[in-house]
Amino acid sequence: MRRQLSSAMTPINKFGLPVFIVAFCLNAAFRVGVPNGWPVVLVMTVMLVVWYFVAGRLLVVRLDDKLLYVSNYRREIEIPLSEVAKVVENKLINSRNVTIYLTRPSAFGSHITFMPEVHFFLFFRDHPVVAQLNQSVAHAREAEHA
Question: What is the pLDDT of residues 48-80, one digit of tens each?
Fold first, then answer.
């Protein structure tokens, strides 16, 4: 049975946030006038670059006993758990994005980044999904060598 690891907020962060940033900044730029609006457009550009690196590359990840199912909303691929090299969590941003590094590149590259469900008050402890992924990878490798 597949279990969803990605947050339900992923599409909002991936698709809704850039639309909001552009609409808000362009509205502000037009309100101050074309000659004075260039700083707002510059701020918008910086915000979009930051958004791209934090949320623009997010993928949807599901898990079962043997495979990761990874989707970019247009295409879904399957990655054997035995091809996971390591799982790393970014504790410095609020969404606690998790990156799965692969032993060989997939159709989406050599690493997969997703936003897990929000867990409050974790502070600098690991997100539970990191432990679950590491445990699933260990079980898959044991089953492969058995």
Answer: 999 998 889 999 999 998 999 999 999 999 999
pLDDT above 80 (res 7): yes
CA distances from 31 to 22, 27, 43, 46 (A): 14, 6, 15, 20
- For residue 89, the surrounding DSSP H or E stretch is strand 84-89
Give CA–CA dist 84/105, Å, rounded: 10
Residue 36 half-sphere exposure toward CB, CA atoms < 13 A:
6
Cα-based torsion angle of the residue sequence 117, 122, 125, 130 in order, rounded to the nearest 10 degrees: -10
- 52 Cβ neighbours under 8 A, 6+ residues apart: none
